[in-house]
Amino acid sequence: MADQLLIYLHDNQALNADWVFIQANGEATSVIESGPLHELAEKNKNALTQSSRISCIINAELVSYSEINIPAKNRQRALQAIPFALEDQLAEDIDQLHFAIGKASDNTYPVVSMANQSLKNLLEKCQHAGINIDAIYIDILSLADDLQADNSWAVLQSDNKASILTSNGDVINADTGSLSVFFDSLIQQKADDLPVAVNYYHEENSETATLALPEEVSLKHISYKQTPLMLFSSQISEPSMLNILQGPYQVVRESNQWWRPWKAAAIITAVALVLHLLSGGLKLNRLQQENQQVQAEINRIYKKSFPRSKKIVNARVQMENKLKQLKKSSGKSDYSFADILLDSAPVIKQTAGAEMQGINYHNRKLELQLTLDKLSTAEALKSQLNKLARVKAELISASSEAKQVNARIRLEAL
Predict the structure, then answer these.
(1) CATH for 407
(2) Structure pTM?
(3) Helices and strands, number each (H, E), in the chain
(4) Is 87 helix (H, G, I), strand (E, B) or coil?
């Protein structure tokens, strides 16, 4: 895998930068260099095109950071609600701000807001120099690893600017001259929730602020040479890092652009396949249920038609055998009981509210005993049966009782 390019912008105007090429584990594969952005691009033309990722670190002064609890498990819904939840805390109009969120913990989201215009200007300056940024991170937040777990604070001092990050997500920015004042004030505010330790990052041999701490809080000085760039390198590849380039600013690499035109088609195909399988499963289940109902109806009719039969193994086959015997004993080979029953059964089945209760057959006449939902259904069923080619239907009786109609219909072979 190609090395990543890590850039640290010294000033808010994005004029000067430090840069280094690193591996995925954060180890440097080049020396750290400093200079204007156009110099970076000129010295590394080939490396810029081959780099797997270009990440940029900016000063916390450019953004506002907070952690807010939003009772929404859906990330997109949380992002829609967050600007309005923070509206009273922000000096700028939320319509002029870009919001980016990190991974939630117990519905608490880390949120970075930055002026849209400032973000656009920064990206345009980088692009003008020939540098296409993939991700933007905040310097002090890149030192936040395990702060909450250890209940520690971080102080970053660089280029006459300083930032304080508390373990519960407060970020305070100040110049180095007033750092002590801001820090003392913060210690007093957090008297009931003091850190166990404070990590103070600053340039080697530089003048540092006096940080007054209670005896139970330890102070650890961590120095760097010339630039804090390598302090951030080990954290850049961590999934927990909050990348500002989200939503309309999200970067899509060329390797992903190839897939984009086919993404929608692939999703539609996958959804169609799932729906097809689901539909097939539902149809199969419905057919199995209908088959069970038909088998139950056949068994019931068989028991009513041949009450002397004690055992039912296969009602359909047994009924066909019984009908053959009746046919043979009648000495007639033309349209018989079996033919009338087989032709009329589908008509009765398709009639809503019709349920067979009994059958009598005598002299080529089949009498059906039915329960129906209403009187008009009896007339409608008789009409449908009369449409059969070799059957004459006659409604013998129909009476209404207990919200149902008892009807007798006689079928005669023509």
Answers:
(1) 3.30.1360.100
(2) 0.60
(3) 12, 17
(4) helix
